[in-house]
From TrEMBL:
Lineage: Eukaryota, Metazoa, Chordata, Craniata, Vertebrata
Localization terms from the record: Cytoplasmic vesicle, Phagosome membrane; Cytoplasmic vesicle, Secretory vesicle, Synaptic vesicle membrane; Lysosome membrane; Peroxisome membrane
Major localization class: membrane
Entry protein name: Synaptotagmin-7
InterPro entries, A to Z: C2_dom, C2_domain_sf, C2A_Synaptotagmin-7, C2B_Synaptotagmin-7, Synaptotagmin
Assembly behavior: Homodimer. Can also form heterodimers with SYT6, SYT9 and SYT10. Interacts with calmodulin (CALM1, CALM2 or CALM3). Interacts with CD63; required for localization to lysosomes. Interacts with APP.
Pfam families, alphabetized: C2
Source organism (scientific name): Pan troglodytes
Length: 403
């Protein structure tokens, strides 16, 4: 007997309805699985992406993660660097929180952003690590005293890991030896050309020096970078009181170099501009103003003026100077001077700027100097390079005055 399916048992679902229901059920199951997978991926990726953003966006967090701390030990000890062990990530309960839904395109965008952000983050961490400690290298030397001949012997042996001070990425180091507080009488080693790990092995004798005076002295070693055309750049220094050394026999030391200090304190700053005109073969030096100059007079002030010397190789070619500003530690000059300099002579040219204190009753005092050339200090070299890179444009920069 034929029975119509549609007429069978009222209220029972038809075949088509059952088929549609099954398809909908399978689709929903797949959607739930895919959404769950996307949410899991997003949670894992979102955490890494958030961390990378925090590392790159906040320098302090990068510094805290990668910076090495130096722990100073008693004399004779070594600096110990401690750093967090990489790969140790604390457990985060946020992984179990429900995340909002996101599309596959959002996931791809997150992956792309993470890849783009990770590289700058690592570079920034390295930069912070480099700034966290200033490595000036170290020096090896020995000291001893001959009681029969009343002679102090100092042997400068070698140095290691000196910083590059020259434009070529190296240095020409030598060592000055003083017995402080006497700085008038000094001895010097030979210059080691283009060498960041120089060996000197030079012996120096301080003869006729009674032992009771030797133990009142401080052995002071200053490592410098020799420069033929401008002022020698200080690299670092070491000082050791001789009353803390057993001088009965030669004692050998390894000492880390420290930044060279200027016992006279800050000398002030000078703002000046340079303008290079290659077609006219000239440089215009504009002395703009100074601030916080060192007081050289008894009344707690100074009478400053500025001298500008043009040097070619080691010879003085031309000199200019500003007017004198009476009793003024923050003078405004605004005076310009033009110097003829052929382009082919730029590399061997130095402009020496000296801030002076005028004195009627005695010699004029030097407040501070600035050496501008291809091979000066970092700030001076930057100013010189900016001048060359921007011809016919005045390039202004503040400079710290040096002794």
């Amino acid at each position: 007997m034929y029975r119509d399916p549609e007429a069978a048992s009222p209220g029972a679902p038809s075949r088509d309805v059952l088929l549609v229901s099954a398809i909908i059920t399978v689709s929903l199951s797949v959607t739930v699985v895919l959404c769950g997978l996307c949410h899991w991926c997003q949670r894992k990726l979102g955490k890494r992406y958030k961390n990378s953003l925090e590392t790159v966006g906040t320098p302090d967090s990068g510094r805290g993660r990668s910076e090495k701390k130096a722990i100073k030990l008693p004399a004779g000890g070594k600096a110990v660097n401690t750093a967090p062990v990489p790969g140790q990530t604390p457990h985060d309960e946020s992984d179990h929180r429900t995340e909002p839904r996101s599309s596959v395109s959002d996931l791809v965008n997150s992956l792309t952003s993470e890849m783009l952000m990770l590289s700058p983050g690592s570079e920034e961490d390295e930069a912070h690590e480099g700034c966290s400690r200033e490595n000036l290298g170290r020096i090896q030397f020995s000291v001893g005293y001959n009681f029969q001949e009343s002679t102090l012997t100092v042997k400068i042996m070698k140095a290691q890991e000196l910083p590059a001070k020259d434009f070529s990425g190296t240095s020409d180091p030598f060592v000055k030896i003083y017995l402080l507080p006497d700085k008038k009488h000094k001895l010097e080693t030979k210059v080691k050309r283009k060498n960041l790990n120089p060996h000197w092995n030079e012996t120096f004798l301080f003869e006729g020096f009674p032992y009771e005076k030797v133990v009142q002295r401080i052995l002071y070693l200053q490592v410098l970078d020799y420069d033929r055309f401008s002022r020698n750049d200080p690299i670092g220094e070491v000082s050791i009181p001789l009353n803390k050394v057993d001088l009965t026999q030669m004692q050998t030391f390894w000492k880390d170099l420290k930044p060279c200090s200027d016992g006279s304190g800050s000398r002030g700053e000078l703002l000046l501009s340079l303008c290079y005109n290659p077609s006219a073969n000239s440089i215009i030096v504009n002395i703009i103003k100074a601030r916080n100059l060192k007081a050289m007079d008894i009344g707690g002030t100074s009478d400053p003026y500025v001298k500008v010397w043009l040097m070619y190789k080691d010879k003085r070619v031309e000199k200019k100077k500003t007017v004198t500003m009476k009793r003024n530690l923050n003078p405004i000059f605004n005076e310009s001077f033009a110097f003829d300099i052929p382009t082919e002579k730029l590399r061997e040219t130095t402009i020496i700027i000296t801030v002076m204190d005028k004195d009627k009753l005695s010699r004029n005092d030097v407040i501070g100097k600035i050496y501008l050339s291809w091979k000066s200090g970092p700030g001076e070299v930057k100013h010189w390079k900016d001048m060359i890179a921007r011809p016919r444009q005045p390039v202004a920069q503040w400079h710290q005055l040096k002794a």
